[in-house]
């Protein structure tokens, strides 16, 4: 792998990080406004939050089709400009009588834009980054995203306090416009094969994408694996806030510390895996090894808990962050390198759609049969992931043997 940072890598990093920070400020500013003006109507905040998920489920697959049939660079530029315009227009409705309706509509529109932007952006990496540097690119991108995820909410508080909600939304608009400007400077660095023209029928193109996925056994297996992982991650995310209850009277504010340790683990995992991601991106067994690491970390939490040592109890969350980040980076890099260029957007859109669908399924399932106040419940999450990992290794053997027989 060549050393040094390439121009396209820097542009893509800055563009994605700028948009990420803008999204955090957008959500914070709008949530604060809704809570302030509709304190007695939590349904308004619920509609605001749920509109995003519903839109993504409906339009992610359409976004994948457009990513495969159109000019990906132009599409990400247009979607970022549209996101900036939405924030700009929304800023004029703050404190107005129609604020609730407009904020919900704006959030839904941004979710629609994101449904087209996200699979396209992930697919664009294939055109702008050399194959032997995609793992490195994804690692640094993830590390930066984690850092922004930690600092973004804190900076958002200060930003809204200084320039107000309207000023924060105008700031959001600028972040999206900056992203679009950076993307204009991207230059394709690899020769890409001629695209197979789509059928001009979105449904037909989605079906073609699904057929392609079913024909690629290993990629299809990884999509199913990521969906099942999200089921257990939903259980983890459900239990994590309850750690304050689990350790009540033993540790103070354990939840916030666990979040910080997980994020620190994610950053560390991104930086460590950046040195090896390009060697591992074709090794599915290494990917599953990291996945099993997340399960082992959660199995360790109930074992360590009786020691009542806060630092020891936090270690599994850091290890969880390291392992999960490594798994995600290798999975993303493997898909970007292995999938046919003509189906890359649709494969990513299927992955995102399945992930969105499985998260609420996991949340409701775990809430119904798991004791959220018991630290032992983490063993169910961890045990499920370990069993999933072992089953995945068996399935890989089966897929491999079928390939040989074919």
TrEMBL record:
Look up and give the membrane topology term: Multi-pass membrane protein
Respond yes or no to whether keyword Cell membrane is given for this record. yes
A single Gene Ontology CC annotation of this entry is: plasma membrane
User: Can you tell which superkingdom this protein's organism belongs to?
Assistant: Bacteria
Report the residue ranges that make up the Major facilitator superfamily (MFS) profile domain in this protein: 1-400
Q: Which InterPro entries match?
A: MFS (IPR011701), MFS_dom (IPR020846), MFS_trans_sf (IPR036259)
UniProt keyword annotations, A-Z: Cell membrane, Membrane, Transmembrane, Transmembrane helix, Transport
The entry's localization annotation reads: Cell membrane
Which Pfam families does this UniProt record tie to the protein? Answer: MFS_1 (PF07690)
Main location as per UniProt:
membrane
Q: Which residues cross the membrane?
A: 75-93, 99-116, 136-163, 169-190, 219-242, 254-273, 285-304, 310-331, 343-366, 378-399
- PROSITE patterns annotated for this entry? MFS
- One annotated GO molecular function: transmembrane transporter activity
Tell me what this protein is called. Major Facilitator Superfamily protein
Q: What organism does this protein naturally occur in?
A: Butyrivibrio fibrisolvens
């Amino acid at each position: 792998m060549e050393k040094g940072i390439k121009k396209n890598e820097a542009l893509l990093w800055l563009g994605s990080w700028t948009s990420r920070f803008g999204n955090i400020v957008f959500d914070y500013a709008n949530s604060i406004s809704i809570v302030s003006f509709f304190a007695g109507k939590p349904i308004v905040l619920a509609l605001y939050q749920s509109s995003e998920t519903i839109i993504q489920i409906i339009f992610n697959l359409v976004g994948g089709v457009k990513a495969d049939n159109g000019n990906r660079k132009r599409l990400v530029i247009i979607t970022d400009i549209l996101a900036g315009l939405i924030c700009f227009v929304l800023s004029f409705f703050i404190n107005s009588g129609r604020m609730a309706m407009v904020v919900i509509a704006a959030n839904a529109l941004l979710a629609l834009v994101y449904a087209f932007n996200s699979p396209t952006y992930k697919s664009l990496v294939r055109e702008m980054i050399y194959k032997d540097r995609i793992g490195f690119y994804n690692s640094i991108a993830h590390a930066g995203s984690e850092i922004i995820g930690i600092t973004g909410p804190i900076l958002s508080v200060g930003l809204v306090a200084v320039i107000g909600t309207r000023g924060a939304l105008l700031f959001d608009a600028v972040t999206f416009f900056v992203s679009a400007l950076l993307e204009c400077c991207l230059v394709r660095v690899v020769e890409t094969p001629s695209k197979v023209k789509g059928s001009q029928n979105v449904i037909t193109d989605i079906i073609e994408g699904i057929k392609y996925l079913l024909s690629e056994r290993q990629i299809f297996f990884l999509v199913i694996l990521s969906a099942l992982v999200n089921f257990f991650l939903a259980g983890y995310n459900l239990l994590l806030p309850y750690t304050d209850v689990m350790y009540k009277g033993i540790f103070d504010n354990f939840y916030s510390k666990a979040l910080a340790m997980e994020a620190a683990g994610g950053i560390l995992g991104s930086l460590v895996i950046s040195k090896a991601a390009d060697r591992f991106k074709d090794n599915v067994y290494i990917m599953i090894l990291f996945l099993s690491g997340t399960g082992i970390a959660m199995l360790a939490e109930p074992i360590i808990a009786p020691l009542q040592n806060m630092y020891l109890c936090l270690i599994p969350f850091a290890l969880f962050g390291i392992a999960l980040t490594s798994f995600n980076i290798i999975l993303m890099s493997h898909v970007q390198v292995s999938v046919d260029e003509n189906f890359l957007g649709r494969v990513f859109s299927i992955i995102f759609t399945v992930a969105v669908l499985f998260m609420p399924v996991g949340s409701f399932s775990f809430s119904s049969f798991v004791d959220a106040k018991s630290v032992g419940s983490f063993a169910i999450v961890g045990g499920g992931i370990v069993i999933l990992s072992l089953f995945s290794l068996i399935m890989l053997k089966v897929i491999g043997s079928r390939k040989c027989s074919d």
